[in-house]
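== Folding the chain ==

***
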Amino acid sequence: MHIDDLEWQSRGLGGYPPVLVDLLVEHGHVELLVRAASRGVWSCARAAARELCRAAEFERALGVLEPFVELGWEPARWAAADVMLQAGRVQQALDWNRPDDTGLASELVCRNFAELLVKAGQVDEAIAILVPHLDRRWPLSVLVDLTEGQNRDERVLELLAPKADRARSARGEERWTFDASNAQDLQAQVLERAGRVDEAIRVLGADIAAGRFLVQNTLTAFAELLQRNGRMEELRELGIGEHAHVGLPYYARALEDHGQADEAEIVLRRFIAADEWDRFRWPLIELLWHQGRIEEAIEVGRPTFDHHDACLLDSVIRLLAEAGRFDDALTILDERDAEYIDEHPSWFHTNRIWLLGEAGRYEEALAYAAVLPTDLYGMTSSTAWILEQSGRVEDALALLRADAETDAWEVAACLVRHGRADEAIDGMPSIAELRAASRWG
């Protein structure tokens, strides 16, 4: 095990990806996670430590993490500190990870240590650790997240105030790259959670009305604030005014929630008729869907189905699939012309196979896959899934193993799903082998 191997795993989710690790956890294979961790698999070590802590096996959890800590892998050090906290060894965890001057200059180190301090009940020290970094949006968000429910809202508002003032003036001064562009959103969030909703709406609303903000996220934050607090008049102004591209979907949902679905539909259809970018079709599709008007919802999306931008074909197909209407989804898919299929071959064919499989039409799906190019991206995985769903597990495994482009974890995941987890882990290549075979090594 080497640091660069661990960095490769972390950088590109190399080795054992979350889907495989989650499967092992879901099926209760903690000992197999421990075994994989002993082979230098960081994702399994982290998951094993977490599961062992849930069973109050804190020393074993630390033992799993120890080789990674000794190697100098920083994520393992923070994970081990969290285990110590859960074991009641609070001061040891803090002393072991307290940053030096170099660490205090790092946003990441300070974020990690601040999280540790909050878990240990030392909220004021956590805030102090973050203060030198509050000119950037990420540490500002961390400050707000970590202090929620900690009875420190007034202190947080004191820290946010000058950042929000600078954000208000940035646009007028053409400082478009101002790092703390989220300060106004966060200020309103903290005011709201402190029970000062009217003030939050007044301050952020004034900024938006005057154009004193930098990013669209601020509009979104205001719309969500209004919707959460049932402020229909202000939401209407936002929804049908110059910021309708952001506010209208929130206004329409609020109308629906207040029993005014007819009014929401009227407003949405009016804006759709005047909008050349199809920005408001999806909110209307959702509204109609909630009312069971599925055919009408499909027709709203249909004009976009062949577009390169703002295409709602995939979204409508997913909705139909969630409703179990696989044949209807297939009908829409099969309406695409040859030019569309040539432009989106992998997406079209793998989705058609998936829908046939979800409909239980396995033989039809396999016959369809058999006439397609074998080198089409995703074809092997899609066909193996059909074989697996139809009970032909060995055929699925054989197909996956025969394709040199198939990732080893896909074979392992199939084995885990069918009660052969030991075989899955024993068959996984080493991290060095996985890295050597990776396109991103």
Observations:
- The two ends are 15 Å apart (CA to CA).
- The longest helix spans residues 153-170.
